[in-house]
Amino acid sequence: MLRIALPNKGRLSEEARDLFNDAGLEVRARGDRALTASLGGEFEALFVRAQDIPEFVADGAADAGITGWDLICESSRALTPLADLEFGRCRLAVAAREESGVASLEDIPAGLRVATAFPRLAQEFFEARGCPVEIVPVSGAAEIAPHIGIADVIVDLVSTGSTLRVNGLREVATVLESTARLVVARETMTATSADGRARARTIEELVAALQSVIRARGKRYVMANVPRTALDEVKRVLPGLTGPTVIDILNGGSHVAVHAVADARSIYRTVAELKALGAEGILVTRIERLMA
Ligand code: AMP
Questions:
Q1: Whether the CB of 36 sits within 6 Å of ligand 1
Q2: Closest residue (by CA) to atom 11 of ligand 1?
Q3: 78 and 199 part of one domain
Q4: 158 is in which domain, residue-wise?
Q5: Which of 90, 92, 144, 165 most suits a substitution to test ligand 1, by most atoms within 8 Å of the C-beta?
Q6: Which residue's CA lies nearest to atom 14 of ligand 1?
Q7: Contacts of 3 (CB under 8 A, 6+ apart)
Q8: 156 lines ligand 1 (CB under 6 A)
């Protein structure tokens, strides 16, 4: 049974569990503090700190893992990302005190002190711009560093920006954009042994399942009865994946049923336009999985 490393707490943990549950791989732990759990009887979950997941996967303690792209890049381990899971969206950003006069990267002189929990990414970022800095490693709460004189600027994760704002800091530049990824060790997908190939196939099936859930979240299934005379315009409103399915209604004639997959973001407009074309009995449902 393959072992998947998942974050044990923090922002990524709940969304990772939800994703497996939605893919039909229910997380079944023996207790709240259990470090392992069954994933639908198909996989074993290993709950560890998000920061440690790149190491666990690279060292082969887990066959695959889910963690933030920021942590994967900072670890610099030989890992291959197989899927962008689209949650845990944030950016690693450079920020300075609002009253510091630092408004852009050009205002940062070489030798400045940078407090960060991402020393490798921060160092590389400034070096690539010909501006070597002094890294002050911290494991959290970097926001306080410029106020207590241990650093001039920080490199930290930003989501909404409210933590920076309440701490009197201004975002100056983006180092990296991040979301949660499913990663494997670099050699996993090119293994040649029978075992290795079987493992790669199982991981491919898992990736396809998780991606089908993510794809489905952005879509809705729309059903409606529309006047036959309006079909051409209905096709414009409801393009679907390969065009809407059109079904004759028994003892009908004037109306046909159309079924199609539509974008969730524009579903409000789609329904309004269908209604304007004389559609009746409009039904919109969520989709659990949508395979490519
Ligand atoms: P915000 O106030 O929404 O900009 O969030 C910033 C705070 O949340 C900082 O302390 C970050 O370290 C943390 N944070 C934001 N997004 C993430 C993420 N995707 N993963 C881990 N920590 C995050």
A1: no
A2: 157
A3: yes
A4: 90-178
A5: 90
A6: 157
A7: 43, 44, 45, 46, 61, 62, 63
A8: yes
CA of residue 154 to ligand 1 center, whole Å: 14
Whole-number Å distance between alpha carbons of 78 and 58: 6
Residue 40: predicted pLDDT: 95
In a domain, residue 235? The reply is: yes
| Banded model confidence at residue 251, pLDDT cuts 50, 70, 90 | low
Atom 6 of ligand 1: nearest residue by CA position: 158
Q: What is the pLDDT of residues 52-109, one digit of tens each?
A: 999 999 999 999 999 999 999 999 999 999 999 999 999 999 999 999 989 999 999 8
- Both 18 and 157 in one domain: the answer is no
> Do 174 and 184 belong together in one domain?
no
Whether residue 108 sits in one domain with residue 77: no
Where residue 94 sits, what CATH number does that domain have?
3.40.190.10
Distance 179 CA to ligand 1 centre (A): 12
| Torsion (CA) 260, 266, 268, 270 in degrees, nearest 10 | -40
Burial of 29 (0-12, 13-18, 19+ CB in 10 A): middle
122 and 99 within one domain: yes
Give tens-digit pLDDT for 170-185: 999 999 999 999 999 9
Q: Is 181 exposed, middle or buried (0-12, 13-18, 19+ CB in 10 A)?
A: buried
**CB of 144 closer than 6 A to ligand 1?**
no
Do residues 72 and 22 both lie within one domain?
yes
Tell whether 292 is covered by a domain. no
Same domain, 6 and 82: yes
**Residue 145 falls within a domain, yes or no?**
yes
Does ligand 1 lie within 6 Å of residue 65's CB atom?
A: no
CATH number for position 257: 3.30.70.120
Testing ligand 1's pocket by substitution, the residue of 163, 166, 170, 174 carrying the most ligand atoms inside 8 A of its CB is 163
Q: What is the pLDDT of residue 32?
A: 78
Kindly indicate the confidence band of residue 127, based on its pLDDT and cuts at 50, 70 and 90: very high
Q: From ligand 1's centre to the CA of 157, what distance in Å?
A: 5
Percent of the chain with pLDDT over 70: 99
Number of domains the chain is built from = 3
